[in-house]
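Field log, afternoon session.

UNIT: design team B
ACTIVITY: writing a sequence onto a fixed backbone
BACKBONE:
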């Protein structure tokens, strides 16, 4: 009688997929971060927001990508959300507007203007079975 040994490479494969997808998410984060910074400083349409004076809001836009369990979490936002620093209190009102001020979106257009690049980056991450669901 002969012995049969079965070796599983599941963990190695999962680590490779997670690593590739994590790198892709970090690349997406950097792409959107840079575009949002440009938009916050000089928004599309040319109408500069009256609060864009010091560049504080733009300089506080950042991103982070981290692995928690089996999930890759990517956050694109303000340093206060990412690094626990002092918040830029008016950024949400700049992006979304308020009852007394028009919106000057900078983050949403950063994602939308790079939609095709983001999809390509994720598809090329090496993770098989990754699909983009349009909503």
């Amino acid at each position: 009688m002969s012995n049969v040994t079965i070796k599983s490479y599941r963990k190695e494969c999962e680590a490779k997929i997670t690593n590739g997808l994590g790198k892709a998410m970090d690349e997406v984060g950097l792409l959107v971060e840079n575009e949002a910074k440009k938009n916050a400083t000089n928004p599309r349409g040319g109408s500069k927001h009256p609060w864009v004076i010091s560049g504080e809001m733009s300089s506080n836009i950042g991103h982070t990508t981290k692995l928690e369990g089996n999930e890759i979490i990517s956050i694109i936002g303000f340093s206060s959300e990412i690094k626990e620093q002092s918040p830029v209190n008016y950024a949400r009102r700049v992006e979304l507007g308020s009852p007394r001020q028009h919106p000057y979106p900078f983050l949403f257009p950063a994602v939308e203007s790079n939609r095709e690049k983001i999809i390509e980056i994720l598809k090329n991450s090496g993770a098989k079975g990754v699909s983009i669901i349009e909503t």
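LOG NOTE: The chain is about 45% helix and 10% strand.
NEXT ACTIVITY: expression trials, pending approval
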